[in-house]
Structures are given as structure tokens and as C-alpha cells.
Write a structure and sequence with these properties.
With 90 residues, the chain is an all-alpha fold. The chain has one helix at residues 37-89.
Length: 90
């Protein structure tokens, strides 16, 4: 894959590398807006845990959907058989 220097729509284009970071107070940014490394690591860990929980919930929902789909198929099949029997009796 070839990396491009063009900004991706919707992404922050002003990201810097760690070698480009300077004293945050020199930028005049409000106190508390810059994440400390420990805070960033905690945020990443929290996001990963949330993503894992969402992935597990997705797998469970998919399994439940498969069960419900199979039940619906069987019910439709049974209904069709009953309808056929009723038609034959008339």
C-alpha cells in the first residue's frame, strides 16, 4: 500500500509525530486538553475493552439471529404442511 500525504476527509489533518511535539504551554492551549501518556494508555485500554465487549455482543446477536431464523423456517414449513393437508381435505 502506498501512503499518501493527502488528508482523509473527516480526519484531523493537524496530527504531529512525537518528534514534533513542543511545550504545550507554548501553544496557549487550555489546561487539561492535552492527554498525558498514562491517560492516553488508559483511554486506549478502555476503548479496546469496549470494542471487545461490542464484538462479543455482536457474535451473540448473530447466533441468536441464526436460531430465530431457523425457528421461523421450521414454522413456515410446518404451516405449509398444515395448509396442504387442509386443501386436500376440501
Amino acid at each position: 500500500m502506498i501512503a499518501s500525504r493527502r488528508p482523509i476527509p473527516g480526519n484531523l489533518g493537524g496530527m504531529t509525530t512525537s518528534s514534533e511535539h513542543t511545550d504545550p504551554s507554548a501553544h496557549g492551549s487550555p489546561i487539561g486538553t492535552n492527554l498525558l501518556p498514562a491517560e492516553a494508555k488508559a483511554d486506549v485500554a478502555e476503548i479496546k475493552a469496549e470494542n471487545a465487549a461490542l464484538a462479543e455482543a455482536d457474535r451473540e446477536a448473530e447466533a441468536q439471529a441464526e436460531v430465530v431464523t431457523e425457528q421461523a423456517r421450521r414454522m413456515a414449513e410446518a404451516t405449509e404442511e398444515v395448509l396442504e393437508e387442509l386443501r386436500e381435505r376440501q
